[in-house]
Amino acid sequence: MDVEEPTDEELVRSPYLEAPRREVIPPNPQHAIRALTHDFPSEICGWGAHPEYEIHLITKTSGSFIAGDHVGTFQPGHVSIMGPNLPHDWVSDLPAGQVAVDRDAVVQFSDEWIRSCMELIPELHEIDEVLAQSTRGLVFSGATAWRAAEAILEVTRTQGAAQMAAFFRLLALFAQSPKEEREVVASEWLGRPTDANSLNAVEAGLSYIFENLTGDIRLSTAARMAYMSEPSFSKYFKSATGTTFSAMVKKLRIAHARRLLDTTEQTIAQVAAHSGYRNMANFNRQFLAEVGTTPTTYRRLESSEKPPPEVFSLGLRAPVD
Predict the structure, then answer these.
(1) What local confidence, expressed as pLDDT, does residue 13 receive?
(2) Does residue 80 register a pLDDT over 60?
(3) Gap between the Cα atoms of 58 and 91, Å rounded
(4) Domains of the chain as residue ranges with CATH
């Protein structure tokens, strides 16, 4: 499967026009979790994905965020948890040259570690639902959000046993939060693989897409990266994600295009090229099919008028009842 690539290789790219990167979070044997604050802009910021869960708090500024195929807005107090391998980004509306100090508070932990904890501490199984929902991006609101904001900051400001106690209090807050204060934002295209072959296909496939979103993407190359034949790769990829490899490429490219339309002043032609489309008619057709409106019309709409995420999802929503 070949996917169209941009013809204008001389287009100037800003840090926010790159394809999502596979973020590598080095493990620290002295710490079970990673907790930190960072500025925006920062080299740690950007549209990326990683195998760890990420609990995220915005402390200042407003802007747009993307989680999988969802594009939304944020303001101070925005609290979320992003599951493993879900691409995400928060882009603040700041004047050029301005820096928002300690804009983000972040807590990251691995699935393997938290599952080991759950085996030793059965009471932790109450967080199962939150972890499952986070694979599609889980955003909290209301009292849960402001309580969680305080708890997240406590995790970043403490060390040792006190930090772990604060972390587990935070997980308990999420687990006991009312259903109406949770929102699962992305569609179900990134489910948890159930076997090693499916996991391998998804990891190789998504990594390849993320690294080449604006360029040439071939199913044959993805299959080779997974050490599989093309038919086997296609079978396992669809089994794990619920969609074909080519449909996944299109979905992520259109989500990326929507983000560019929301957060940059690029022309429609530049957005198309930066999203991997060299043919404007094809870009307009694919965008209309996914979003329900053309790129030009979409950009003219007020935020409240823009199609909700359901319009360009697979039509499958994570249960919240």
Answers:
(1) 35
(2) yes
(3) 11
(4) 2-14+189-312 (1.10.10.60), 31-184 (2.60.120.810)
Mean pLDDT of the chain: 82
Determine the Cα–Cα distance for residues 146 and 78; give it in Å rounded to an integer.
Answer: 9
SS (H, E, C) the chain: CEECCCCCCCCCCCHHHCCCEECCCCCCCCCCCEEEEEEECCCCCCCEECCCEEEEEECCCCEEEEECCEEEEECCCCEEEECCCCCEEEEECCCCCCCEEEEEEEEEECHHHHHHHHHHCHHHHHHHHHHHHHCCCEEECHHHHHHHHHHHHHHHHCCHHHHHHHHHHHHHHHHCCCHHHEEECCCCCCCCCCCHHHHHHHHHHHHHHHHCCCCCEEHHHHHHHCCCCHHHHHHHHHHHHCCCHHHHHHHHHHHHHHHHHHHCCCCHHHHHHHCCCCCHHHHHHHHHHHHCCCHHHHHHCCHHHCCCHHHHCCCCCCCCC
- What pLDDT does 144 receive? 96
C-alpha–C-alpha distance, residues 43 and 49, integer Å: 14
**Structure confidence at residue 103 (pLDDT):** 94
Segment 32-61, tens digit of pLDDT:
999 999 998 887 777 677 889 999 999 998
**∠ at Cα 310 (256, 217), nearest 5°?**
35
Q: Confidence class of residue 25 from pLDDT cuts 50, 70 and 90?
A: low
